[in-house]
Structure formats: structure tokens, C-alpha cells
Amino acid sequence: MTKGVFSGMKPAMMMKKFKGAGRAAVGIFLFLNLFFGGGAVFASAPPENAEGIILEPKLLFQGGICRVTVYPQEGYKVKSARFAANPLILKKMADGGYTGIIGAGLKERPGRKRLTVKLFSDQGVSRVLSRKILVKQKKYPEEHLKVSKKMVEFPPPILRRVLADQQAVRNACSRVTSMIYWDLPFIWPVNSRILSPFGLHRFFNGQPRSPHSGVDLRARTGTVIKAPNHGRVVLVRDCYLSGNTVVIDHGGGLFTLYAHLSQVGVKKGEMVKKGEVIGLAGATGRATGPHLHWGVSLNGVRVDPAMLMELFGS
Ligand SMILES: [Zn+2]
């Protein structure tokens, strides 16, 4: 984790605490099926020659993402798209559709947000497709821990360093590249299992901390960490909490972050290919044990990496 104070914990302790997560996921699945079974958007591929926007899933949860696929009418191409306040960069697919990712931060205000897609024809005629997408509140599991005061409070010089690290990561994830580097599917940076889920709300000695900004993946020190897709390395930094940290820009406002690495194998500015080794897992920074903290940032807000893999992964 990069925002909180605590950078890792023993897997056994973790697993005990967030048993509720699986049940929550089942609940969401049922909810989606019950309430969003139809409507203006197509459930699967649109009928032949029809024009439409496909959303998967059909609504956004706080901290979640949604896959948008646009099928323009024959003779039309996508010119540009927007979701709420952000540009949405769509990638042309082999089947003639255009696909992209929209997301909502954990603090996104629930309500309906507008998605607009501008189309233009070969004859220069332009049209606009538009949908309202529901952003829904989501309650993430909680974890209550008793920790020593030392783990919660920092002396001023350390606090300054922590804040500077956070600013550097925010800056790295804020520049939106108008082109998309990724292609489908995304691959997991390490093939293992999730020790701690995204959004987990931690309380230290009863005090709420920042929710978990990524997923913790089981990885021993020295485990090879791979780029989940093509991109440009935009940050390599030794951070106080997240240790050796790498950020990759995948284009279109999408970034991935890797923390606690024992070794970094890439340099800032370098282009990386999907599957390329970017470093080795470790326990640098404030981590109680080796693991990979993997974060995903979309348009400056953290979203659930597990959902990226569910919708865009192999
Ligand atoms: Zn973490």
C-alpha cells in the first residue's frame, strides 16, 4: 500500500480478518443480475449493423471499473469520448468495435455520470452517442488491528518524506497520454493469489486509515515481476512506505504501480513490453513480509486491480 502507514502484514492475520469479502462479491453479482438485466445498452454483442454502447458490468461501484465497447453504425468512426470530467481514450478492436476503461474512485460521489461518444462519418457528418452510467456506493471489508504507536505516528522528517513520496506517485499518475499502449489481454504481474484485497478499510487502534490502494499478491523475495501490458516507465523511486516503487503508464490515463520490490530492472522513461521483467518482489519499505503490492490508477484515482484482470485479463 502506498497511502496508509502500514505496508504489509502476515498473510494469516489478513485472511482471518476479511472473510466478508467473498460474500460481498456474491451479493454484488446477484444485484447486477436482478437489477440490470436489460435497458438501453446491449447485454452482449449488438445485432448486426446496430449501433450501441456495451457496458460490462452495467454500472460502476466506488473503486471499480467498467469496460466500455462502442460499435458505431457502418460508415462511422469514433472521434472522441468522455466519461464525467475525463477524456475516455478508446482503442479500435479487430471486430470493428472500440473499447476502453472507465472507473470510479473510492470517494466518487454516487449518482449518474454521463458517457458521451462523438462519431464522424466518411462524409464528415458527426453524431453523438450518450449514456448515463450509475455510480453506486460500495462497502469494503474492514480490518481492525492493534499496533504499536511507532507504526502509526511519524517524526516530522519521516512524515515529510512520506508526503513527498505520495506527491511523486500522484504526479506520475496524473499525466494522461492520449494514445493507448496496451493490447488485450492484460496479464497478472505475478501468478499467485491475493493476500489482501483492494479497498480493505483498516483501523489501527480504532483510528481509520486510508483504504488499501491496491492488492497484495503473494510473492517471495526474488520472484520475477512482469509488466501486465505494454507501457512506459514513469516512476522509479525508493519510497519510505512502499520501498522500491515502479509506475508504468499504459496510456489513456491508466497506470500500474509495483511496491516493495527487492530489485528494480527498469529505468524511468523506458518502454516496456507485456511480460517483460520489471523487477523482483521483496519487502523493501514498511513491509512485514515479502509480497507484491500492485496498484492500478485510472485518471488519478485508484481502482481495483482484480477487476481490471476480471474484465481485461487473460
Ligand atoms: Zn498493499
CATH architecture of the largest domain: Distorted Sandwich
Report the principal-axis shape: globular
N-to-C SSE string, H for helix and E for strand: HHEEEEEEEEEEHHEEEEEEEEEEEEEH
Average pLDDT? 86
CATH topology tier name of the largest domain: Glucose Permease (Domain IIA)
Short synopsis of the structure:
The protein has 314 residues and is an alpha+beta fold.
Describe the structure using short key phrases.
314 residues; alpha+beta; Glucose Permease (Domain IIA); Immunoglobulin-like; disordered N terminus; binds zinc ion
Account of the 3D structure:
This protein has 314 residues and is an alpha+beta fold. It folds into 2 domains: 11-18 and 141-312, Glucose Permease (Domain IIA) (Distorted Sandwich), CATH 2.70.70; 25-136, Immunoglobulins (Immunoglobulin-like, Sandwich). It is 17% helix and 38% strand. The protein is built from 5 helices and 23 strands. It has helices spanning 11-17, 20-35, 149-152, 156-172, 305-312; strands spanning 52-56, 60-61, 65-71, 76-83, 86-87, 91-92, 98-103, 111-121, 126-136, 142-145, 194-196, 201-204, 207-208, 214-217, 224-226, 231-239, 243-251, 254-261, 263-264, 271-272, 277-280, 292-298, 301-303. The strands form 5 sheets. Strands 11, 14, 16, 17, 18, 20, 22 and 23 form an 8-stranded antiparallel β-sheet that branches. The two termini are 25 Å apart. The structure holds zinc ion. The site of zinc ion has 6 residues, from strand 14.
